[in-house]
Amino acid sequence: MSEACGPVVAVRVRRARRAGILGCMAKGNGTVVLRVAVSEPPEDGKAHEAVCTLLAEAFGVPASADRIIHSAGARDKVVRVAGDAATLSARLATLMP
């Protein structure tokens, strides 16, 4: 399976005591962003890894299936999730009401 398969998800990350998916928000340009929280600090790639793990659990895929493709060092990220596009898009729809 190609790494390019699967949905691209806009994500806004914040640090919190509990990790989890917080919901979604609409940006001014019409983009819907998935809001997530991680408990790991943004140093040495710990928060980056935590975001990938959290999204992998939410999508039901291995952590290696997530790849941050843009803004790896910022709290606004774009993540590609490898897998069957139709299945993952349906799962994404349940995460973003």
List the helices and strands and how they pair.
Blueprint: E1 8-15, E2 20-26, E3 32-38, H1 46-59, E4 66-70, E5 76-81, H2 85-95
Parallel strand pairs: 1-3
Antiparallel strand pairs: 1-5, 2-3, 4-5
Strand residue percentage: 25-35%
Which CATH class applies here? Alpha Beta
Query: What is the residue-mean pLDDT, rounded to a whole number?
Result: 84
- How many independent structural domains? 1
Q: Main beta sheet: strand number and arrangement?
A: 5 strands, mixed
User: DSSP helix count?
Assistant: 2
* Span between termini: 29 Å
Q: Which term fits the overall shape?
A: globular
What's the architecture in CATH terms?
Answer: 2-Layer Sandwich
Number of strands: 5
Give the CATH H-level superfamily: YggU-like
- CATH topology-level fold name: Conserved Hypothetical Protein Mth637, Chain: A
